[in-house]
Amino acid sequence: MSSNPFTLTSPTRHTQVIPLRHEVQVLQDMAQTAGFGRKYVKAFVSGFFIAVPVTVTALDRLAYVARVEGASMQPSLNPQGASSSDVVLLNRWSVRNYEVQRGDIVSVVSPKNPKQKIIKRVIALEGDFIKTLGYKNRYVRVPDGHLWIEGDHHGHSFDSNTFGPVSLGLLHGRASHIIWPPTRWQRIRPCVPPDRRPLFDGRGSEDDGDDVNDDDNTK
Amino acid sequence: MSARLYSKVLGFLGYTLQYSCIAHCTFEYVGEFVVCSGPSMEPTITNHDVVFSERLSRHLYRIEKGDIVIAKSPFDPNMNICKRVIGLEGDKVCTSGPSDTFKTHTFVPRGHVWLEGDNLQNSTDSRSYGPVPYGLIRGRVCLKLWPPHSVGTLTESPNAGRILRTE
């Protein structure tokens, strides 16, 4: 078999394959090394046409890469302002059941403009009481199935203090890593600004949320 | 022998991955079949009807007034609701029920839609929880597939008067 690799392809088959010279070469190489080479090449060629759905699915279900624009998350993201914008990895698998923690940086579909996604920090979960910064009510209980999100740069952020709590269904992903620029490569750890802790959370205990965050850090 | 088994397992896993990805893309960007339950859309859609909802017009932002849409419930993202779009952003909508003596109106804020069931007496919709963000809409119902005697028919809203045409 290895002495004449063309025995692999029948004459009719041969003429079909000829224009793809590279593929013939691959066929020969693979035939010499392993018996399942031909099957593999066939799977590879058909897999190329599958690559698009696979990529789309991976971007939808697993992870998404996005560039952060604007100053609303300074100093956590974009610390140098407009001169260099960060690229973040959005973990979409971890939010498939709409589970987030206080302090996570998440991307949500903007309630004011569905074509836009905004990236903010989760301040309060459903059931939490929160003191707002300039919302129409001074104290708010976050309704069921909603999140209270704020940018780190108070006063320069278009967040829940403007449009109120956002529905969990608008959740898009959780920012898990900064991947660009390389000097800033790091994991994003959940942290709630100390002055933005909920007055009391939906489960009744003051420090419950912090314990959950610590557990996640040790993983 | 083990190499053959290995390649077989690998091939099977590959095919599973391929077809699940194709299925995901189809359900995500083309359309999906939905079994509706609950009385809120009677008489247009009754309990246990099967409908086909297409996702394209949601992704292309082509949802119009009078369309029936499937949306995530604003209070429970795992639950879906099926309602009719009464108003788009900037539209004036009537917030009071049909039997109320005083009519109240409001404007739909930017990026939101106003959803109401066709069965106004028995529907929890925007009249109780307010406008719904457009991002929660999953698809537009375009075909009824079950029961057989009403395949393909989606009647106009019985409360057409509630859709205010401002243009």
Please tag this protein with its features:
heterodimer, A: 219 residues, alpha+beta, Umud Fragment, subunit A, 2 domains, 8-stranded antiparallel beta sheet, two-stranded antiparallel ribbon, elongated, disordered N terminus, B: 167 residues, 7-stranded antiparallel beta sheet, 22% helix, Mitochondrial inner membrane protease subunit (chain B), membrane (chain B), LexA/Signal_pep-like_sf (chain B), EC 3.4.21.- (chain B), mitochondrion (chain B)
Describe this structure in words.
Chain B: It comes from Hemibagrus wyckioides. The complex is a heterodimer of chains A (219) and B (167). In chain A, the strands form 2 sheets. In chain A, strands 1, 2, 3, 4, 7, 8, 9 and 10 form an 8-stranded antiparallel β-sheet that branches. In chain A, strands 5-6 form a two-stranded antiparallel sheet. The longest helix of chain A is centred in the first third of the chain and has 25 residues, at 37-61. Chain A has 2 domains: 5-61, no CATH class; 63-218, Umud Fragment, subunit A (Ribbon). In chain A, strand 9 (171-180) and strand 10 (186-187) form a beta hairpin. Chain A has 5 helices and 10 strands. Chain A is elongated. Residues 1-20 and 205-219 of chain A have low confidence and may be disordered. Chain A has helices at 11-17, 21-33, 37-61, 160-163, 208-218; strands at residues 63-67, 87-91, 105-109, 117-124, 129-131, 139-141, 146-150, 166-167, 171-180, 186-187. By secondary structure, chain A is an alpha+beta fold. Chain B has a 7-stranded antiparallel β-sheet. Chain B has a two-stranded antiparallel ribbon with strand order 5-6. Chain B has helices spanning 2-29, 56-59, 126-129, and strands at 31-35, 50-54, 68-73, 76-87, 92-94, 105-107, 112-116, 132-133, 137-146. In chain B, strand 3 (68-73) and strand 4 (76-87) form a beta hairpin. Chain B has one domain (32-162): Umud Fragment, subunit A. By secondary structure, chain B is α+β, with helices and mostly antiparallel strands. The A-B interface holds A 34-36, 39-40, 43, 47, 50, 53-54, 56-57, 60-61, 97-98, 109-115, 143-146, 166-171 and B 3-4, 7, 11, 14, 17-18, 20-22, 24-25, 28-29, 61, 72-78, 109-112, 133-136.
